[in-house]
Design goal:
Helix content: over 70%
Radius of gyration: 21 Å
Number of helices: 18
Shape: globular
Structural class: mainly alpha
Number of strands: 0
Oligomer: single chain
Largest sheet: none
Strand content: under 5%
């Protein structure tokens, strides 16, 4: 690693400049791409904010301003987790600043932070500068940027998970625990960070009283939210049960019925994009990370993907799978000795951005 504070500062400055440059170029690229698709193809007549602010964004804004529903019902807004609405409430001064613009701009700041943390994380893992820069470029131009532009939780989940793993890699365990605990109130799969944390702790320090305390702390924010739901609507698992509403396409499995037939129906109803994303993430990404001894990251990826299957519906798999940092880490790993593989992955990724924007701006639910 760096041998002096001056070298460290110079390296960090170069990392900052590179990430900032890539961030600006990628935002300009997406603006041109958006403008062409909107004005030449879709012609919706909507403003940029109206086109970006849709789907779950409105639900998060509603929670930020009005809180959760006061009675339990299928499809209630408690399926969305509280950290992002709380951040929006604070940053917007309880709605004093318009939430759509606030969340879109805030997510851009968060994404830039993700690029910077990812750069440092890849360096900490021992990758060469070219591979590190490639990873940043791949993330900045990823098709999942349609979600990074909107007022959704994907950027904040990405930043928290990256920072938690980066902290573990630097042996800043308590910092990783504090940051990791927030994942549990960001998305439903956030609590899965505890799995790679257990593996990390056992492989390095074995199990002791400190480890048990750290695991308890990891669970505190989610446990507090579950207690709130129990008191508020009488169901501490409302964020799961409420998703059984038809519009969520997450019915779960009827264990008394024909499981094979239900699985077949689940895959049959899913789009080719969701099935592909699910298969790539579950199998390819996990195997690549495990094979190259990035076992903590492989476990996190696997345990974030499995709940999609358990939910009984693959809808949103593209969004959920490719918004994980593990997808981009695996791409960096598998292409580190081949410029050809690097270019193929990048070209395929950028080509997919056109498909995502086209469906998104047309109002289709496929990439909702």
């Amino acid at each position: 690693m760096m041998s002096s504070p001056k070298k460290t500062f110079n390296w960090q400055l170069r990392a900052l400049i590179f990430c900032l440059l890539i961030f600006i170029i990628s935002r300009y690229f997406f603006f041109l791409e958006y403008s062409f698709i909107e004005h030449a193809l879709i012609k919706s007549g909507k403003s940029v904010v109206e086109n970006l602010w849709r789907w779950d964004s409105e639900h998060y804004a509603g929670i930020a301003l009005n809180g959760y529903d006061t009675t339990y019902h299928l499809g209630g807004n408690y399926v969305w987790f509280p950290l992002w609405p709380l951040i929006l409430k604070i940053i917007s001064l309880n709605g004093l600043f318009p939430l759509p613009e606030t969340s879109i701009l805030l997510n851009q700041l968060i994404l830039f932070s993700c690029l910077l943390v990812f750069y440092n994380y890849l360096n900490q893992l021992g990758f060469k500068t070219l591979d590190i820069q490639y990873g940043v470029i791949l993330l900045a131009f990823a098709p999942t940027n349609i979600y990074f532009f909107a007022g959704l939780t994907e950027p904040s989940f990405l930043l928290l998970s990256l920072t938690a793993f980066y902290s573990l890699e630097k042996d800043k365990v308590w910092l990783a625990v504090i940051i990791g605990s927030l994942l549990g109130v960001t998305k439903i799969v956030g609590i899965m960070f505890i799995v790679p944390f257990i593996y990390y702790s056992y492989s390095r320090y074995k199990l002791n009283k400190t480890f048990i305390l750290q695991c308890i702390i990891l669970c505190i924010p989610l446990s507090a939210h579950m207690l709130y739901l129990q008191i508020h609507v009488g169901d501490y698992l409302a964020f799961i049960h409420a998703q059984r509403a038809p519009g969520f396409a997450r019915p779960g499995f009827d264990l008394s019925g024909n499981i094979i037939a239900q699985v077949y129906t689940m895959f049959q109803k899913a789009t080719i994009y969701d099935v592909s994303a699910f298969a790539i993430s579950l199998i390819v990404t996990t195997i690549i990370l495990w094979y190259y001894r990035l076992k903590q990251q492989a476990l996190f990826n696997l345990f974030c993907i499995i709940p999609i299957f358990i939910s009984g519906g693959l809808w949103n798999s593209f969004r959920m799978c490719f918004s994980l940092f593990t997808a981009y880490l695996a791409a960096v790993v598998v292409s580190r000795n081949s410029l050809t593989i690097k270019m193929l992955i990048l070209i395929a990724s950028i080509a997919m951005t056109w498909v995502c924007w086209l469906f998104w701006l047309s109002g289709s639910w496929i990439f909702a």
